[in-house]
Amino acid sequence: xxxxxxxxxxxxxxxxxxxxxxxxxxxxxxxxxxxxxxxxxxxxxxxxxxxxxxxxxxxxxxxxxxxxxxxxxxxxxxxxxxxxxxxxxxxxxxxxxxxxxxxxxxxxxxxxxxxxxxxxxxxxxxxxxxxxxxxxxxxxxxxxxxxxxxxxxxxxxxxxxxxxxxxxxxxxxxxxxxxxxxxxxxxxxxxxxxxxxxxxxxxxxxxxxxxxxxxxxxxxxxxxxxxxxxxxxxxxxxxxxxxxxxxxxxxxxxxxxxxxxxxxxxxxxxxxxxxxxxxxxxxxxxxxxxxxxxxxxxxxxxxxxxxxxxxxxxxxxxxxxxxxxxxxxxxxxxxx
Length: 336
Ligand SMILES: Cc1ncc(COP(=O)(O)O)c(C=O)c1O
Hints:
Rossmann fold; alpha/beta; binds pyridoxal-5'-phosphate; four-stranded parallel sheet; 12 strands; 11 helices; 2 domains; six-stranded mixed sheet
């Protein structure tokens, strides 16, 4: 029997805390709250199971799409045009949402090292009816997306890589309020460290802003997995995250003028797992994926393996609780 959906106040604690943000009208697409649990054999290492956000394809994208879909509906768009790597998880989540919502979907891709997840995700995007346009480099894909012939078409919604439209950052502010509720309910101790992969940066930006609201003693660790520059543009870089934090914080302040002018942040940027590039495993991430898989935690080489390597290192360094935010879920081929 399917679980009863959580009441909206549990699903979107953000709207309880900031009633003015109800205007965003996010659409529930996820099973929330996601569970928290300890990692077997490591009493101070906790996992936030965002792999369980949805049954068809979980991970961090469905949380973002709750806010993005509302934006798409507000603009009355009938087509979504996004970009990502050949095996983009965001592309799969977007394609599945577009299929459910009867929206056309185009995904412009750039190459990444081949893997079973990459092949699976290509199959899932095609299976959901998305049209895929392969470009030879990240720069070429980004250029195609920015200068797309439909750029000025009001019915086309241009969704940045990682499902990271500006409204997507709210999703992880909401997720932090959800986590704080779980701490209050005694499901886990207040984490001293929270570790998450940073690609477009929207997930960690939401976590940083959310921590400032509800878990101010937590130190947030962003693990860089993508290049810091794409042609002339700054990409996976702390400045991009800072800008996203400042933008979402301004919206929170507009909803609650008692907040301080600047978001009080406690966070670190980790570049050591970037290694030889996007989607290329490092020795530490390979070891972390193998350790996780022995305990039934499924990770991949592009994002979650690299972040988990950092979480394991922090667990060795500190006695205080470390929370690894599991943002990856393997998609499932729909049964005919
Ligand atoms: C599994 C996984 N984890 C983490 C991320 C990074 O999220 P963000 O783009 O919000 O930084 C992504 C983004 O594509 C992802 O697919």
